Amino acid sequence: MQQDREQGREQDGGDRPRSDAFPHVEPGDEDLTGVVQLLGGTYGRDGRSHPRSPNEPEVRWCLEAGVRALFEEFCAFEQGEHQAVLPANELLGAVSLRRVMVAYADLLSEHGRDPGHASRDRVLRRWGSTTAFQRDVLRYLYRPGHERARHAQRAEQLRGLYDLPFGEVARVLSSEESDVQGTDPVIQLQIALQAAFPADRRLQELVRANYEHRLEAWARIYEDVAEAFGLRVTRAGFTFRDVAAVYNTIVEGVHQRLTAHPSLGLLEDGRSLALEMTMMMTEKLDGRPWSELADLRAGRGPRG
Fold this sequence. Notes:
- This protein is an all-alpha fold.
- It has helices spanning 2-12, 57-74, 97-110, 121-127, 130-141, 144-159, 166-183, 185-196, 201-229, 240-260, 273-286, 290-293; strands at 41-43, 49-51.
- It folds into two domains: 2-141, no CATH class; 144-293, Orthogonal Bundle (Tetracycline Repressor, domain 2).
- A two-stranded antiparallel sheet has the order 1-2.
- Strand 1 and strand 2 form a beta hairpin.
- Helix 7 packs across helix 10 and helix 7 (166-183) packs across helix 11.
- The protein is elongated.
- Residues 1-31 are annotated as: Disordered.
């Protein structure tokens, strides 16, 4: 406990976490400034209260534990009745801090760290109340850094596919984006919450901001792909942000069907529904048949 307090004091003065303090943070998702807003203060050796840094590693471990506990409760539960009846901003109240601390201990152990005495005091010392922690967990779940890091990785991956014909690039992108919707716990939990609580204003704002970040990132990716392969957007008034909205809706819609049953993501002949819809929409936007579009080769790399 004393060691934990000392670590907290050491980290409180920093603006960003040490690179070795949280080993699985992805590039672009390091800084939680503006995401974590309800931390309490910490007392230094001078006896004065000082602001606690949102980038203290222990803060992130607690938030990750909160997300994991929520996911296990609301997305990964097994057989039996399940009802989500709480307002979204108080949702974590359905998951005890004891369970959060179980997830906390598991997380640290998985990353080769000693969880020490994993008690609810770790949360209460930092946030002061369970309500403050609950609200920051939701903000953390919808933090822009997660999307930013994911899209940076996707853009880098696409650059490695530019020696393939466009049809193959579209197949890989469609398949992997459909898969990630069902395998990324953060995205799964986001979808579950926004479907369960459509009238929660705090959650609505987090969802809206998350979609804005997502659309802007995908618009840049699609514009790079279009420029590299010579694709056109012939529909009057259509922007690449609109293109991103259309393709993202295809992926998200197919994911909803796959959640019900894997066969619902396929056509009668077994072909991928997401890919077929992508092909049809690309034909519509570009004006050329898919047989021609699929054979296009990149004439130049993406914009720098």
